Amino acid sequence: MSAQIPEVRSTEELREKWNKPEVISGSEILLRSLVLEGVDTVFGYPGGAVLYIYDALHGFTDFKHILTRHEQGAIHAADGYARASGKAGVCIATSGPGATNLVTGIATAFMDSVPLVVITGNVFSSLIGTDAFQEADITGITMPITKHSYLVRDVEDLPRVIHEAFHIANTGRKGPVLVDIPKDVSAAKTLFTPVTTVNLRGYNPRTVPNKLQLDKLVRAIAVAERPIIIAGGGVIYSGAHEAMFEFVKKTEIPITTTLLGLGCFPSAEDLWMGMPGMHGTYTANNAIQQCDLLINIGARFDDRVTGKLDGFAPKAKIVHIDIDPAEIGKNVSPDIPIVGDVKTVLEMLNPEVGRATKADAWRKTIAQWKQDQPLRYKDSETELKPQWVIEMINETTKGEAIVTTDVGQHQMWAAQYYKFNKPRSWITSGGLGTMGFGFPSAIGAQMAFPERLVVSINGDGGMQMCSQELAICAINNIPVKIVVINNQVLGMVRQWQNLIYEKRYSYTDLGGSPDFVKLAEAYGVKGLRATNKAEANAAWQEALETPGPVLVEFVVPKDENVYPMVTQGSTIDNMLMGDE
Amino acid sequence: MKHTIAVLVNDQPGVLQRVSGLFGRRGFNIESITVGQSEEVGLSRMVIVTLGDQSTLEQIEKQLYKLIDVIKVVDLGSRPMVARELALIKVKSEPAERPEIMGVIETFRASVVDIGSTSLLVQAVGDTQKIDAMIELLKPYGIKELSRTGVTAMIRGNG
C-alpha cells in the first residue's frame, strides 16, 4: 500500500487558479475559500445537509479530504493537525447528530486555545426552527465553547465569513470558530469574489505590551533572589520558543513548563525543573511555593497547576504575561500584568534583561532538589512498568517523535518521562481532559507531517473511545505508531479511588476489553503485544521498522500510581511522593 | 455591590444570547438587562445591571470584550449617570378608592394610562428606588399585574 498522504501543494499556484471572479455555488465558494486560506487537509463526514458540499468535493483534488469513521474522530484529527502544524485545523460535518458529535472536540480545542474552523451543514433556511429532520441549533449549542460562530443566511456572506473565521481562529488567543451553512446556502449560486480583508470593529487583539510594565519586570528580575518562570502553551502557540530560550539563557531563571507548555523549553537544560502542579515535580512545586518572583508566560493558572489558590506562591511577586486580558487576574491577581503576544513581549524584553545576579543560592537549591528528588518509580524485572515503557519509547525515538496522548495515567507518565526538546511535538488534551482524543489527534498530526514519526500513547480505556479510526489509518496508510498501555482498568480514576475513596473500586475495572491485537488486525492495522521487557523491546523495534500503522499493546500492572501527586484542595508543596 | 454597564454590540441575531449566556456560564449575576437600538445603525446598546465586587466587574468587562460582537463596554457607575426604568402597574381600585390612589400616583409624577371598572393601569418612569417605593405604596390596594423594563442608563453631560 502506498502512502496517500498529500504532498505539499503550492498555494500560490492555486491562488491564481481560484482567485478569479466566477458564478459558482456556495459549496464551491467554500472549497475555493478553504484553498485560498492555505488549507491542505480537511477531516469530515458527509450527510444530508452537506450533500452539496460533498458533491462539490467529488473529484476536487486541491486539498485532501480524510473520511473518518465518526465526527468525533474528524474533529480530534483536525485538532491534532492544528497543534502539530500551527495552522487552523478544518473539519466538516452534517447537521443535527453530525454537528452535535463535534461538541466534545470543539470544547477540547476551546479549552486549549487551538485554532479550528468547523464547518457544519444545517437544514434548509426555511426549515430552521421547525424541528426539521436532523436539525439542531448548533451555533446555540456551541456558543460557550467557540471563540466565535456564524450561521450563514446568505450565500453572498460566505466568502467574507470563511475569511473572518480563519482570521479569528488563528489570531489573538486562538480558538475554534464554527460556521453553520444551511443546505440552500450551499446550493445557491452567486458571483464569487475572494475576500482578503477583515473588518471586525469588536476584535482587535493587543499584541504589543505596555512598555512601563516591561520595565517593572526588568527591575524585578534584577533584584529577585528566588525567581522562577512558569511557561505554558502560549509560548508554543505564539512561536516564542526561541525567544523563550534566549530569555532563560540571559536571565538564568529556573523554568517549569506546564502540561501544555512541554517542549517550549528543552528538557535537557539544567534550568528546567519539569512540570508543575498536581503531578508536577518536587522541584517545580517547591520552587513555586518558595519563589519571590513568579513570571507566568502564556499559562493560565489552571487549578491543576495552582492547587489550592489561597496558598499558591505565597511569597511571590507575580508577573502574568498573556495575550488574553481576561486571563490577567482571573485566578491569581498579578503585581505586574502584561497583556501582549508572548513572542512580542519576550523579544522586547530580551535586549533589556540581564542575569538575575542575586539568585545564585537559589539556583543551587534548585539543582540540589533536582538531584535529591528526581522523578522515580520502582522498576520490575518480571512485570512491565508503564514508566519504563515511556522511557523506552523516549530512548528509541531520541525525543524526536511527535507524541500524542489520551487522558489518564499514561498521559501523566508520558508528560513526566518523555523528554521534550522541541515545540509542537507534544499533543494532549490539557484543559478538558478528553478521553478518546489521543489516537485521532495523532492521525491529524501525521497528516500535517507525513515524514515525521508520530507516536500515539493511549490507555486501554481511551483507546476504546475512538478505536474505529483504525480504519482510516489502514485505508490511507497513515503510519501512526499506536501504543496502548493496558492496565485493564481506568487507571487515573482507580488511583483516586485507591488514595481518596478507600480502595472502593467502583466501576473502574474494564474487565472485558477487546483483544487489541486482533482489533487492530480486524481493521487492517498490524497488532503486537508485549508483557515483559524483552517482548516490549522487540515489539517496539518491529513497530518502528514497519512502514505504515502499527498498534503495540503493552500489558502493565493495574496498581501502579502516578507520583508525585497533590490531592485536590491542598497547596502544591503537599505532595504524595509514592512508596520509594 | 450593584454595577450598571452599557455594552455596545453588533445588531446580529444571537448577540443577546451570547451576552446573557456569558453571564450565565461564568456565574455572573444579571439583575436586569435591556437592549435596543443605539445612535448608530447596525449597533445596539445593552444596559446590564449586575451584582458583584470590583474584581467580578473587571472580569465581566474583560470577558465581554472577548465576544467578537461586542464593540465597547462602559462602566456607567464609575461616572455620574442617569438611570431610568419604566413600570406598568395594574392596581385594584374600586371607584371609591380612586382619588386616594391618584394621590399616590401624582406624588410620584406617574400617570394613569388606562382605567377599568375595578382597576387602574399606572405608568411610572424613574430610577429603580422610586419605582420600588411607589410599588410599596400601591401594594395595600392590591397589585393585579406588574411589568418592569429594567434599567436603561446614560452618563450625564457631554461625555
Automatic annotation (TrEMBL), chain B:
GO molecular function: acetolactate synthase activity; acetolactate synthase regulator activity
InterPro entries membership: Acetalactate_synth_ssu, Acetolactate_synth/TF_NikR_C, Acetolactate_synth_ssu_C, ACT-like_dom_sf, ACT_dom, AHAS_ACT, AHAS_small-like_ACT
Protein keywords: Amino-acid biosynthesis, Branched-chain amino acid biosynthesis, Transferase
UniProt key word Cell membrane: no
EC number(s) from the headed UniProt entry: 2.2.1.6
Top-level enzyme category: transferase
Reaction(s) this enzyme catalyzes, per UniProt: 2 pyruvate + H(+) = (2S)-2-acetolactate + CO2
GO biological process: isoleucine biosynthetic process; L-valine biosynthetic process
Pfam families from the UniProt entry: ACT_AHAS_ss (PF22629), ALS_ss_C (PF10369)
Top-level taxon of origin: Bacteria
Quaternary structure and interacting proteins, as annotated: Dimer of large and small chains.
Family per similarity comment: Belongs to the acetolactate synthase small subunit family.
PANTHER family the record matches: ACETOLACTATE SYNTHASE SMALL SUBUNIT (PTHR30239), ACETOLACTATE SYNTHASE SMALL SUBUNIT 1, CHLOROPLASTIC (PTHR30239:SF0)
Name of the protein: Acetolactate synthase small subunit
Native source organism of the sequence: Paenibacillus monticola
Lineage: Bacteria, Bacillati, Bacillota, Bacilli, Bacillales
Gene (name only): ilvN
